[in-house]
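Work Package 3 (structural annotation) set out to generate three-dimensional models for the target panel prioritized at the project kickoff. During this period the team completed the workflow that converts sequence records into discrete structure tokens, so that structures can be stored uniformly alongside our sequence database. As a representative example, we reproduce one entry of 312 residues exactly as it appears in the project archive.
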Amino acid sequence: MSRGGREDGEARPVGRSDAALIDRYLAMLAAERGAARNTLLAYRNDLTDAAGQLGALGTADANALAGLSKAWADLSASSLARKASALRGFFGFLEAEGIRADNPSAALPRPVARRPLPKVLSHADVDALFAALQARAERDPPDPRDLRLAALIELLYGSGLRATELVSLPLRALATDRPYLILRGKGGRERLVPISDRARAAIATWRVHVPPDSPWLFPSGKSHLSRVRLFQLVRALAGEAGIDPTRISPHVLRHAFATHLLEGGADLRALQAMLGHADIATTQIYTHVDASRLVALVNARHPLVDLKARGA
């Protein structure tokens, strides 16, 4: 095996030199590129795992990196792509900083990861979810947890918030006289998020039950509601609504927000801004849901249809 590699695939502890280089690289990503916390955590795990596999990451050569293909053989295409991206960025950083003269990352596997189409909820599915929420709201006496769930679902589907953005909303993020909030989302980017009248009403009803000294709109213990708990709440509501819980998650409701807005004629650029996508290519994935409507539109409205009818 070449320098830095392992024949048996057994991971070694990460050396102090590699740990320091990883810290420097991640600090650069945070400071210069505004990388999100979750991205930094994922990259740290990827780089640490690779260092353990190789025995020495900072000095690994092309042959050692090529040997990672075996260790990564069972990974999904998306995981493989992320790991390769983390290592390419790391070695590019070392070269740019003059820490090493070469960049061996060309030897890394370059999977072609197809972006998966998002799971889609129909309008009927969404109606069923809100019917289940309404049934909860009619309980006597009302349960504050149901009021909280109503506010959460209204914001997920009505504004397309990410799960992390939603659960960590500050208590004072939503002013009663303002139909929007300014949110700092993924990568530290700020965006304006419109809040529907329905969502504002649901939040106002829930807010009465939030301790006034809480920093969070959705407090839980000493912090805010967790993403895991939000996931559980959404799936439990799906079960009550007669929807297969495996088909739904907070992110699927964000997809439904985007999908249904696009079906309703929303501009793709406006949708990009509302979702907080840095690249419109990410937003364009939602155009697939409109395919059947677009085909029907072409068949019904294209000028050639009139020509064919006149020639018949």
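The chain has a mean pLDDT of 79.
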